[in-house]
Amino acid sequence: MRKIHVITQKEAVAEEKLKGCTAVVIDVLLATSTIAFLLENNFEPIYAVKDSTQAIELSKQHSEPHILLGETKGESIHGFQYPDPCLIKLSDAKQAAIICSTNGTIAIEKASKANVLFISSLVNGHVIAERINLQQDGSSIVLVCSGNDDRFSMEDFIGAGQIVEHLLRKGSYELSDSSKLAREAYLHAQENSFKELYECETAHLLKRFNFTDSVEFVLRHYETVDVVPLFTDGKIVNDHQKVPTKRL
């Protein structure tokens, strides 16, 4: 029976231990939600890097059309679009995106040694669980909460619980203690229409920087985005192996 683990923040990731595992990085506010909306709006591939310096260097190497998105500790970066899912608009032609962030993109880098690495948020966690359930490799499943700059993040833990709950609806899995608690947190939050997330630390941070609509936008699109972001060969693409599904 496959086991599900939840790591509560990126700083606790033991990178070598992810080899052979299926990992999922979760950063509900903002990075992984933004990545999901980028893919949905014709931005592909997506390059997730740890900071603006790497983003600029990578941008110089790309002659094809692309956009730069990024923030550092919640603050905007000159020359970068803020990585807020509210700001993502449909691209007429497919183009690449380069994104850096304080938490989510660093978590992706730390989890990059996993055998398979997906990117999830509350907007698409249902299809991530579906895709994982289709695997036949028996690998352990490690859900990585990005956290909030070296601290626990409520919304990411709830996002991990979302995947746990959907997996349990589809099959039999062995849960670690953290997975059990994440599932309970998700079920409680869902029952209360995720009201707690309007008062989480990240929500207050976004309000302080005048990005007041992000939480509402993500929750309004809860389980409505059917993309499966897959990290492969150093970039994120939509995993088209996914079987179409209706919301659970």
Automatic annotation (TrEMBL):
Cofactor: Mg(2+)
Gene source species: Planococcus notacanthi
Protein name: Probable 2-phosphosulfolactate phosphatase
Similarity section: Belongs to the ComB family.
Keywords carried by this UniProt record: Hydrolase, Magnesium
EC number assigned by the record: 3.1.3.71
UniProt xrefs under SUPFAM superfamilies: ComB-like
Top enzyme category: hydrolase
InterPro entries xrefs: ComB-like, ComB-like_sf
Catalytic activity reported: (2R)-O-phospho-3-sulfolactate + H2O = (2R)-3-sulfolactate + phosphate
